[in-house]
Amino acid sequence: MVNSATSSLIGSDTNSAASAPASPKAYNPTIDCVRIVAALVIALFHAGVAPAPAAEASVAFFVTTMVFFMVRKLSAGDGRARPPIASGALRLLRPWVVWTAIYSAAIIMNVTLKHGDLAQSFREWLPPRGTQNQLWYLLFAAALSFALSLISRRADIAAVIERNLLAAGALFAVASCAALTIWTERLLPSGLGIFLLYIPSALMGLLIFTTSRDTPRLLAVAGAATIFGVVLSASGIVGASQLIYGVPLYLFAHFVRLPDRGYARALGGIAMSVFLVHVLVIAFVERLPFVTLAQPDGAIAVVCMSLAAAMAIRWMKLEKYLQ
Asked: Which of 76, 77, 192, 261 could form a disulfide with 81 if both were Cys (CB 3.0 to 4.6 A apart)?
């Protein structure tokens, strides 16, 4: 079973997982299925196979669903629902510490074997210069959880947005433009700028949750965000693909409900493990003498080994330490 911090992190809920047009609390298997596909697309991008816009849309899907479920917990109307989210910000740091230790050990081993510069390797990997590959996401999730928890203590986030939807839309546009401009112009080191890159997707999670029960408004908000992404992209802004492709991807998962055959929950349960372990898998595949990483055989190896590693984590019940 996935703990409450992890369920928010991966956009899942062990009791009533995902969103549906009729009821945001009804389980929607499509979200779990899209999640595992998104995790594999990110892995293939880092393997040099999938295009950048596909990976960007996949990360955006993770961020949007994560925020959606965080806000849903905070908006449950039950005061007892708040502490798990607040403490979840701290619990989300536990897997970051564990994975940082794992990847640090891998870096030390690799640099030692190659007789490289260990200090330089860590400077390039750790913030502010580096993003820790995919591990930045865990810090981003913890920061969002903490911020949303603090805000929710003063007001019902969804209710405030609903009463001021036009103003919220304007704030979304200004904040997204500013965040993506900073990323495009490289005004901050990558290890800091990466936290701004997916601010638009986080804000979309708030807007989508607020309008999820009203289909016309949901479509209007999503359509406006997608068009806004096209305008940003045409203006040379990097990162707009998360709006151009990520928002329609979420709408697909929201409205298209696959039958609940049982496999969706299992796939959704290993998606975050695939996301977190795939960089180690790629490093291993890259050293196999009979596989070429950026070719079809390398892509198949990365997908199969990432899935195998994620299933092993689940089978050994290590998720509470690694997610």
From this structure: 76
Angstrom CA distances, 234 to 34, 118, 227, 238, stand at 28, 41, 11, 10
Nearest to 272 by CA among 30, 15, 43, 29: 43
DSSP per-residue codes, 169-202 = HHHHHHHHHHHHHHHHTT-S-HHHHHHHHTHHHH
Q: What's phi and psi for 210, nearest 5 deg?
A: -60, -35
Q: At what angle do helices 199-211 and 215-234 cross, to 10 degrees?
A: 160
Nearest Cα to Cα of residue 86 among 16, 7, 151: 151
Q: Give me the pLDDT at residue 4, please.
A: 45
pLDDT tens for residues 271-310? 999 999 999 999 999 999 999 998 999 999 999 999 999 9
d(CA 84, CA 299): 38
What confidence score (pLDDT) does residue 18 get?
36
Q: For the segment 47-59, what is each residue's pLDDT rounded down to a tens digit?
A: 999 999 999 999 9
Q: Which token pair is 258? A: 């696959």
Cα–Cα distance, 123 to 110 (Å, whole number): 15
pTM of the entire predicted model: 0.89
With 0-12 / 13-18 / 19 or more C-beta atoms within 10 angstroms meaning exposed / middle / buried, residue 109 is exposed
Written as one letter, the residue type at 249 is L
Structure tokens at 65: 């669903």
Band (pLDDT 50/70/90 cuts) for residue 91 is confident
* Strand, coil or helix: 97: helix
Query: Does a cis peptide bond (omega within 30 degrees of 0) precede residue 296?
Result: no
